[in-house]
Amino acid sequence: MSNSGDKKDSRLWGGRFSEPTDAFVERFTASVSFDKRLYQADIKGSVAHATMLEKAGILTKDEMQQIISGLEDIQSEIESGNFTWSEKLEDVHMNIESALTAKIGNTGKKLHTGRSRNDQVATDIRLYVRDEIDLLLAILNKVQLAVLDLAAREAETIMPGFTHLQTAQPITFGHHMMAWFEMLQRDMQRLHDCRKRVNISPLGSAALAGTTYPIDRELTAKLLGFEKPSENSLDSVSDRDFAIELSAACSIIMMHLSRFSEELVLWSASQFNFIQLPDRFCTGSSIMPQKKNPDVPELIRGKSGRVFGHLMALLTLMKSQPLAYNKDNQEDKEPLFDTLDTVKDSLKAYADMLPAIICNKDIMQSAALQGFATATDLADYLVKKGMPFRDAHEVVGKSVAYCIEKKKTLSELSLKELQQFSGSISEDVFTVLTLEGSVSARDHIGGTAPSQVKAAITRARQLLKQQ
Ligand code: ARG
């Protein structure tokens, strides 16, 4: 490890140091390469802080104005690509503050009165995360609308429903889509809930204990759109559970998308052939000309892994940290940013892909005819004729074994054949053995009957309008 030549350290905190930072340490401890994306939040926080300092009589009006317009210039420079970020200045906060002082002179050095980078960074992340949650909510809403449209389009389309990936009972495709709607709705609620705990202002907590200046924390909280100032300065500078919570909510979203993706991958395979994914969401193979690979759902399924990993990284990062701020906390950003980027992109892909999915209705229908999907309906029929359910189960089991032997489906058996298994069976059995009869009979809230699916879609649309 080598030190850079200069004897004196010119950094913002360099006063008590007699030798400059080791060049390796400088690079190792810097965060600007990734935290520069907090620049908007950082400037917004500084403008609110300066505004409050003036109201509290700590800055003059002129000083406040110089600081604010200097910060606005810096924001334009960053946005037009004319700002030079320096690793020597460690992070986004010190890069911007140094640039301010370079621009407006000594007044720039007054901005940091009554605050610390510890409450500054905690404020910045909360501001950033709050905006990101709003973006996530907007995209999630688009995905939900796409799911509802697909459910409405296919409310009567019959497919086999599975348990253990074995044919279980016939369901409607619309019903299957509404299951996804419910999962996404809970994802939405989790984000709304998390947002409430994010929207609290740590600003004014300073390094850890608060500050001796007559600051007005209510004012900065209000200027930044936070619900209120946080209660405890030690907690405020060190807490990152809002990030863990968001990361958990994002992990659950990705877990849901991975399940959704898995089904899209299966359903688009030629052995199922239930759906066609739009070509623009698939890729070909360089060697096998027939291939159309469902890359987008596969990748989303795969990307769930990194998001779960980030949740574990954040939990481990915070585990056993003593109060209050520790440098460990700087490690919160990359997992959090990557989580947000990944989830936003995955949801965006879903919002675009779902409306273009084509259902191969005939294939789903004939798949539902395989695998004795109406066996439960036959058992229920016998129960309604007075047979105890366990006996009915036995009778139907024997009928299914007979069908397998004869290579027939239940509805292909003649009345005579069916009657070998129970004298209670009569002509009316054939309506319960049809797929349409089977799905329409499940006619209660949460059931797969097309009328129930349509009612669920109406309620869901109402719910989305209210939120
Ligand atoms: N870059 C730091 C972080 O991301 C900012 C806060 C640093 N505070 C300190 N006292 N070193 O956490």
Describe the 3D structure.
The protein has 467 residues and is mainly α. It has helices at 23-29, 32-35, 39-55, 61-79, 92-104, 117-153, 173-198, 217-223, 233-238, 241-268, 295-318, 333-353, 361-369, 375-384, 389-406, 415-419, 429-433, 435-440, 450-466, and strands at residues 158-163, 166-172, 200-201, 228-229, 275-276, 358-359. It folds into three domains: 19-113, Orthogonal Bundle (Fumarase C, Chain B, domain 1), CATH 1.10.275; 118-365, Fumarase/aspartase (Central domain) (Fumarase C, Chain A, domain 2); 375-466, Ribonucleotide Reductase Protein R1, domain 1, CATH 1.10.40. The chain contains 19 helices and six strands. β1 and β2 form a beta hairpin. The longest helix is centred in the N-terminal third of the chain and has 37 residues, at 117-153. Arginine binds next to α6.
What's the layout of helices and strands?
Layout (H helix, E strand, L loop, with lengths): L22 H7 L2 H4 L3 H17 L5 H19 L12 H13 L12 H37 L4 E6 L2 E7 H26 L1 E2 L15 H7 L4 E2 L3 H6 L2 H28 L6 E2 L18 H24 L14 H21 L4 E2 L1 H9 L5 H10 L4 H18 L8 H5 L9 H5 L1 H6 L9 H17 L1
Parallel strand pairs: 3-4
Antiparallel strand pairs: 1-2, 5-6
Helix pairs in contact: 3-4, 3-6, 3-8, 4-5, 6-7, 6-12, 6-19, 7-10, 7-19, 10-11, 10-12, 11-12, 14-15
The structure holds arginine (ARG).
